[in-house]
Amino acid sequence: MTEVVTAAQMRGIESAAIEAGAVTGAALMERAGAGVVAAILRQWPEAQSATILCGPGNNGGDGYVIARLLAERWWDVRVLGMGDAEAMPPDARANRAAWQGEVAPLTRANLEAATDTDIVVDAIFGTGLTRAPAGEVLSVLKALGDCAAPLVAVDAPSGLCLDRGIPLAREGSVPKCDLTVTFEVPKIGHFIADGPACCGALEVVDLGLSHWRGKLGADTTRLIDAVPMVPPTEGTPHILPNFRKKTGHKYDNGHALVVSGGPSKTGAARLAARAALRIGAGLVTVASPPTALAENAMQLTAIMTRRCGGAAGLSEILEDARFTALCLGPSLGVGEQTRAMVRAALGPRFVVLDADALTSFEEDPSELFEAIAAVGEPERVILTPHGGEFGRLFPDENAALDAGDISKLDAVREAAQRSGAVVLLKGADTVIASPDGRSSIHAAHCARSVPWLATAGAGDVLAGLIAGLAARSDDLHRAAADATWLHVEAARAFGPGLIAEDLPEMVPRVLRDMGV
Ligand SMILES: NC(=O)C1=CN([C@@H]2O[C@H](COP(=O)(O)OP(=O)(O)OC[C@H]3O[C@@H](n4cnc5c(N)ncnc54)[C@H](OP(=O)(O)O)[C@@H]3O)[C@@H](O)[C@H]2O)[C@H](O)CC1
Ligand SMILES: [K+]
């Protein structure tokens, strides 16, 4: 896991270090530029020429450092610069002055004339982008999409909002880069919405500011765990203990209950139940309507079945305090019966509400939120919507998200505050937020991209993984974040051709490979 920060937090870290006299802005710019050059040389060892596009601020300043360092290696370097050198911030101005070669104006025509280049470096805008690019620079950004040469972004693909992961101008205005090299710590926009697709591979250059980064530590509501876009090599020890079962009795590892839909609507519950058992809940039971009991029992062995007649039946089952987590919603049906079952389910255990358990409250989401508040214990409930279900429960947050007014992260944070539940909004960029302010982003992109995970029933498996982990945990947010990671790892381990049934079967291999 790694932290990710907003653009403003990054500026805060940088200025705290400079103000403390620990480092100068010029030294940071040199480290940043050298880091980008090292990444380019690693990635394209044969390249010999570059066109560097430099903006009017410090991102452009990094570009002039890169130009100088590549020229010192005898590369053929062409620089296209934007704005008046005198108006640049001091360190950028100094590096522009130190560049010995020509600086041609940054125009679309000049960019298109530079066809004989091995690499194009986008150092136009980074964290200082304040408004939508327009005019000539917008035209340049659009033309960058047609560049034949590999495109390397300095800090960010220019035009990308690093807080929201969306283009500040309209679509097509952020170049799709092959490599983005950012500094010290990734920014939120690298991981959500359009960010990952625009960034390409992401590398992080250490600027030596960890001491000042640590000072943000108390501000936990604004620091986010994120799963990096690279596959875990030695990167899992921190989460490994979360997957270890307790030695002892099966009840020491919790008992998860999954509520099944009626006849011919039972598969989703069985998928969730199998995932819950595979991830290590000590016991798993499927609570089934009497009419579907035979159907469920015929297809379950290690997983137990219980007859459950509606909300009253569920309340009766839950009198057994050994049920530590509950999953309901997949294929349960939309309507009052499901609402009643949700009300019966809420209580002192962890409850995963998914699918129909969410849609059933579309008419009046506040009824759900009031029922959650009535539990009286924080963070007992997690809502796991996909985008459509999120819009049904949180129309205001969803409208602001669609309009680009707030980020996916902020939308989910607001939803967690509004509902009093942990909220997990699914996607290739899954965002999890808790009422206590914790938030996590899980970006399954680049090497961890699993398009084949978009398959029927995969969401039911995720709900089951969360319930199974929560059943033997005391931290629902953590369980959700770990389950999200494992869900993607299971899909990666199987590969294309995956169907939902395969996901629980891959769990043992993933756990074994990570050393659990
Ligand atoms: N964070 C670090 O530790 C380090 C960061 N470095 C690099 O610095 C940039 C951030 O530099 P900054 O100068 O703050 O911002 P930018 O270079 O990204 O952009 C600011 C300039 O761009 C102008 N601007 C902004 N939006 C637009 C627009 N839509 N159209 C035209 N011009 C725009 C802005 O003009 P203003 O009028 O708004 O002032 C500025 O001129 C960071 O990303 C890193 O690359 C350090 O070098 C190393 C340490
Ligand atoms: K850039």
UniProtKB/TrEMBL annotation:
Q: Which reaction does it catalyse?
A: (6S)-NADHX + ADP = AMP + phosphate + NADH + H(+); (6R)-NADPHX = (6S)-NADPHX; (6R)-NADHX = (6S)-NADHX; (6S)-NADPHX + ADP = AMP + phosphate + NADPH + H(+)
The residues that hold AMP are K426, G427, A428, D429, T430, G459
CDD domains xrefs: YXKO-related
What are the binding positions for K(+) in this chain? N59, D122, S158
Which residues does the record give as (6S)-NADPHX binding sites?
58-62, 126-132, 155, 268, 386, 460
Give the cofactors, semicolon-separated.
Answer: Mg(2+); K(+)
Cofactor stoichiometry and binding? Binds 1 potassium ion per subunit.
Provide the function of this protein: Catalyzes the dehydration of the S-form of NAD(P)HX at the expense of ADP, which is converted to AMP. Together with NAD(P)HX epimerase, which catalyzes the epimerization of the S- and R-forms, the enzyme allows the repair of both epimers of NAD(P)HX, a damaged form of NAD(P)H that is a result of enzymatic or heat-dependent hydration. Catalyzes the epimerization of the S- and R-forms of NAD(P)HX, a damaged form of NAD(P)H that is a result of enzymatic or heat-dependent hydration. This is a prerequisite for the S-specific NAD(P)H-hydrate dehydratase to allow the repair of both epimers of NAD(P)HX.
Q: Which PANTHER family match?
A: ATP-DEPENDENT (S)-NAD(P)H-HYDRATE DEHYDRATASE, ATP-DEPENDENT (S)-NAD(P)H-HYDRATE DEHYDRATASE FAMILY MEMBER
Q: What is this protein called?
A: Bifunctional NAD(P)H-hydrate repair enzyme
Native source organism of the sequence: Gymnodinialimonas ceratoperidinii
